[in-house]
Design brief:
This protein is an alpha/beta fold and 296 residues long. The chain has eleven helices and ten strands. An eight-stranded parallel beta sheet has the order 7-5-4-3-2-1-10-9, sandwiched between helices. β9 (221-223), α9 and β10 (242-247) form a beta-alpha-beta unit. α2 runs parallel beside α11 and α3 (56-62) packs across α4 (64-77). Bound molecules: zinc ion (ZN). The site of zinc ion has 5 residues, from loops.
Length: 296
Amino acid sequence: MKTLTSQSEHYIELINEYKRNGKAVAHFNISNLDQARAIVEVAQELNQPVIIGASEGEREYMGIDMVRTIVNELNQEYDVPIFLNADHTYTLEKVQEVIEAGYDSVIVDGAKLPYEENVALVKQCVDYVRAYEEKTGKRVLVEAELGYIGQSSSLNTALPAGVSEENLTTPDQAKDFILRTGVDMFAPAIGNVHGMLIDATEPALHIDRLKEITAVVDVPLVLHGASGNTDEDLMGSIDNGVAIIHINTEIRKAFRDGEMSYLAEHPNEVAPYKFGHQGQEEMKKVVRAKMELYMK
Ligand SMILES: [Zn+2]
C-alpha cells in the first residue's frame, strides 16, 4: 500500500531509478476529471507510476485545490503512485500558491526572460521551496527550463516565434544554471517545441546536443513539448538522460477527436459521460502507446 506522506522523497528516487534504468516516467496534463481518470487507468493497467500536470491555465480552470483533491483521491483508488506537478508556473506568487496547496513538484518557467533574470527568478523560488520544506518537512521538487520552446499546448500552423536553433540550450549554460539555482530537475531546449504542427512534421530533436548536456549535468532531464516527436527521437532522448517526458497536445487532440466523432454519430446526445467516455477511450490509446514506449 502506498503512503502519501513520504511521496515526494519517493518521487525523486523513482525518477533517478528510471534514469539509471534507461526508462522515463510519463507526464500528462489534465483539464478535467475525464482526462485524469483516463491517464490513471492506463498507468494502473501497465503498473507504472505517472505524473499528472496542471499548468496555470489548467489549474485555474479546475481549481488549484480541486486538482490536488482529485489526485489524492486517485491515489487512494489506484495502486500506482500518481504525482502532481504544477506545470509552467511563471511567478513566485503562483509558486507559493501551489506549494501551499500541496503539489509534489513545480516548474518555474523563466525561459522567456533574459538569462540572469531567469536564474534570479528560479533561485528565489528554490529558496522559498527549501524554506517551506524546513518548516513543514514536505519535500517539493523544483524544475526549471532554459532555452525557449514556445508556451501553448496547441495545434499550430508554424513554429512559435522565438524558437530557433540559436536558442537551444548549451551545455555550459545548463551547468551554470543548475549550479546557481539548485533545481532538482532541468528542462533543456533541444529542438523540442510546445504544441504540435498541423500540416508539417515536428522538427527532429538534437540528440547530440542532449548528449553534450547530459555529460556535464547530474540532475534528471525533462523533455517538454514531446507531442508530435517520433518514437525514435523519444527513445533517443531517454537513452541520453531524459527521465520525464511531457505530452499534452497529443492527448488533448485525441480526447477532442473522440468526443467529436461520438457527437457526429449521435448529434442529439447530451450526456457528457457518453461523449466524455469516447474522448477517454481515444486518449487512452495515446497514453498507452507513450507509456509502453517509455518502458522499453
Ligand atoms: Zn512544457
